[in-house]
Here is the input.
Amino acid sequence: MNVSGSTNQPLLEVDNMSVGFRAKKKPTAQAVRGVSYSIERGETLAIVGESGSGKSVSAMAMLGLLPSSAEITGQVRLEGVDLLALTPKELRTYRGRRIAMIFQDPMTAFHPAFTIGNQIAETITVHGLANKKQALSRAAELLELVGVPEPGVRVNQYPHEYSGGMRQRAMVAMAIANKPDLLIADEPTTALDVTIQAQVMEVLANIQKEVNAALILITHDLGVVASVADRVQVMYGGRIVERADVRPLFRAPRNPYTRGLLTSLPRVDGARDNRLIPIPGSPPSILAMPPGCAFAPRCSYRTEVCDASAADLQMVVDGHESRCHHNADLPEWTPLQTGSES
Amino acid sequence: MGESAVTEANSRPQAMVEDVAFGDKPQSFGRQAWKRFRSHKLAIIGIFMFFSMVLMFWIGPAISSYEFDEINIVDRAQGPSSEHWFGTDDLGRDLFVRAMRGGQFSITISVVTGLMAAALGGVLGSIAGYFSGTVDTGVTFLINCLLTINSLAILLVLGVKFQMTPLTIAGLIAILSWYRGARVVRALVMQFKEREFVLAARAAGASNLRIIKGHLLPNVAGSLLVEATLLAGTAIILESTLSFLGLGVLPPETTLGTLINEAKGSIDTNPTRVLIPGGLVTLIVLAVNFVGDGLRDALDPTHELEQ
Amino acid sequence: MSEAAQVTPPLLEVDNLVTHFPIRSGLLKRTTGWVKAVDGVSLSVQPNETVGIVGESGCGKTTLGRTILRLIEPTAGSIKVRGEDVVAASSGRLRELRKEMQMVFQDPYASLNPRMPVHDIVSEPLRIHGTSKNEARDRAGEYLEAVGLLPEHGNRYPHEFSGGQRQRVGIARALTLEPDLIILDEPVSALDVSIQAQVINLLEDLQQRFKLSYLFIAHDLSVVRHISDRVVVMYLGKVAEVADRDELYASPGHPYTQALLSAVPVPDPEIEATRERIVLHGDIPSPADPPSGCCFRTRCPIATELCANETPALKEVEPDHWVACHFSSI
Here is the structure.
C-alpha cells in the first residue's frame, strides 16, 4: 500500500484490526472487522463512511479511548511500536504527544471551567515539555497560528466566550501543541457553518503541512474529502470496501457502495440537477450484519455469491482496491450519471 | 452503468417497504409495558412484598381469635407465644392483630397520600411549566413557601389542635408535600414543551389541554410515579413519627407508628414489640419504592434500547 | 377580489415580517435588549412551487418557518395564505388555516412523541380536526403507504424505526390534513447521505402527487439547489438575495452568496484543485447585536464606509433577481 514506493517503514500501520462490543444477553456487536491500512508523514488519508460504518470506532480504538466493553484485536504500529499492546500509562505518553485527536464537538471537548490557554498549556506540561509559563506563551502563539484573533486576550478566556469556529480552531491549536506525528480529525467541521468550515479546513491543511504530520480525516462529507485528501478509504459495515488515491476514486469509483454515495449526492455546482439515485434501504445494524457482503441487501448488482460470502479487498487497477465479487464485470462508471427526469 | 441498473436503483417507494425489518411481532402498549416490568427483578420482588403484606394485613385479623381492641389484663405485656404470635401490649391486647390493623392504616395512608400528592403535583406542575408567566410565578411561589416549611412541625401543631383520622393525616401530608412532584413535573414539562413533537401538535391545531394530556403528561408520568412512590414512603414515615409522638389516630385505633410509640417503654425487656412494627414500616417503604422503579421503566417504550 | 383572482395569487405571501425575542435579565426580568431573529423578511410562494431558504446558523431561517405557522408570534409584518391574514386570525380561524400549512422538522428523534405508536402520531392531526378514530386510522395507514412504509408499521413506536424511516413518519403526519404548503425545516440534514437522497426523492414525488408547495429551509446549498425552484439567501435575519435557482447559483449577486457558494466543497477533486475559494474572515455576528448598516459588512471583502452607514435595500438587479447590496456585482 506504500504509494511512494519507498522501502521505509510507514509512520502508522494498522494491521487486521477488529473491534467488537460485548453486551449482556446480546450478540457481540462487530463495529470494525479486520481493517488494515498504513499512512505516511505528510499524507492525508480520508476515511469515509456513514453512521455505523466503524470509521470513528477504528480511530478511537487505536488511542485506547473506547469503553472497557470493547474487544480489540490486531495491531496498530506507530513506527513499529504496537499501540494496542501498551499499558494505559505508556499509551498516555503517546496521546497528545505523538498522536493528537480533533473531535467533532469542540464545546464538549474543552473543560468549561478552565481557560482555553490553560488547557492548551496543560497538554504541553503534562508531557514535561515546558514549564507552565513557557507553555502559556506557547499557547498564545499556537492560537495565533490557527488564526484566532487577539490571541493575547483569547488565551485567558473560557470556552463559552469563544464562537464555535474559534473553539474548533483552538482545538486544532491544542492538537498540534506538541508537534504530533499523527493527527486524527473525527468529523472536524460537521458541527460548523459552511463559511466557518472553509476557514477551519484551510487552517488544518496548512498546519498539517507545516508540522509535516500525517492526517487521518474521518468524515461523511465527500466534498471535504475531494478538497483535502491524498488517499481515500471508504468503509461500510465495519470493513474497508474501497481504497484509492483521491482522483482515481472520484473519477472512476469501483465499489457499488461508493458509486451509490456519489449518485445520491446533489451537487452545488449543478452537476446533478436531475433526479438523484439513492441507495435503497438502510445501513446494516452492527448487531445483525448480513452474512456475506454487508452491502449486498442494498446493492443492485447483488447475486447469490454476494449473500454467501464477503469478497476480499482486491487490487482492481494499480493502487485502486475494491471489495466486490463483481469487480471484473461491473459496468463502466459514467461520472455524472443521473436518474431519469422527474 | 447499464440502463437496467438505473431503473432498478430508482424503483421507489415500494423498494423502501421491505427495508423495514423488525425482529418481533408488534405488541400492544400494555403487553410491552408488562414485559418490561417483568424484566425488572426488584419490581417483581416489590410487588410480591406489597401484595403479601396487603393480604396479611387484611386476612390476618380474620384468622386470629382476638380483636384489635380486646383488652385482657391477665395476659398483659407478654412476649411472643403460640397463643399471642407477636405478644401482647400493656393492656393485654393481641399485638399480632394490632400490627395487622396498624398495617392496614399505614398502607392506606401511604397509598392515598402518594396518589393525592402526585395528582396535585402533576396538575399544578404541568400547568406552571406549560403556561409560564403569572401562573408559573404563582405556583413557584407556593412551592418555595412549602419548601421553607417544616411539614412535621405543621402536622404536630394540627395534631395537638385537632383529632386526626387516617384520612385527614393522608390529606394533610399530601397538601404539604405535593410540591415535590410539582417541581419534577414543571421542570420536565418546560423541557418537553420545546420539543419538536409538541410543536408539530400545535401546528396541527391541538389545544393546550390536548398537548398537556396527550403529549406532556405521558412523557412525565414515569418520573411522577417514581416521585409518588417516594412520597408514599415519606408519608408512612411521617405518619409513624406523628403517631410515635402520640399525635396520630385516636386510641384504641392504631397504626404501625402508634405501636412503636406504645412499645418504647419495653424496648429493653421485649424488643420484638418495636422491631416488628418498625420492620413492617421498612418493608412497605421498600416495596413501594421497588414498584415505582419498575413502573418507570415499564412506562418508557424506549427503555429496552437503552440497556 | 375578482380582479385579484385573474393573476394566480401567491399561496403564501410574507411581507416585512419581524420576529424579535426580548432578552430579559436582572431580578425583575426587565427587557434589556432584543434578538433580531427575523428582521423584515418578505417572500412569496406560488402554488406547486418550492422555495428554498438557505443561511447559516443564526440567520433566522428556523424562526421564520415557525413564525409563518404562528408557532412563534411575529413582532410585526404580515403573513397571508391565499390572501387571508394569518397574523390577525382568531384562534379558531388559525386552527382552520393550519390545515393548509404543515411542517416537517429537522430532528427525526425529537419530532415524534416517544410514548405514542406511529398510527396515533400520524392520525393525530385528523383527530384534532374531528375525524372519527377508525377513519383517522385508515387514513393514517394510507399516508404511511404514501411515504413508503406499511400500514402495519403503525403499531410500532418511533424508537423502533431508523432515522430515515422516522423522517418518513414525520412527513406522513404533515400530509394527513392535505395541506397546500409544507414548511420543511432541515428535513434531511440529520440523515446519512444515502438516506438523504431517498427522502429528497420522496419529497419530489409527494409534491407531484399531492400538488404541494414547499418552503424548504436548509443550510446545505447542494440540497437546496437540487430541490428548489427559487432560493432566498438569509443572513442575520435579513434577506440578502432572492432569485430563481439557476440564476442564483450561476450568477450570485450578493458577496455573501458568492462566498457561501464558493465555500461548499464539490465532490470532485479535479474541480476542487482549480477552484478559487473566497474564505470569509471572522465569525457570524450575534443577532442580538447586529452591525450597523449592512449586517454583512464586518465579513464582506468589498465593504466601504457607505455599508456601515446605510442599510442596503433589496433591489431588483435583473428581472426576478433581488439583491440587498450597495455594490451588487451584476
Notes: The mean pLDDT of chain A is 88.
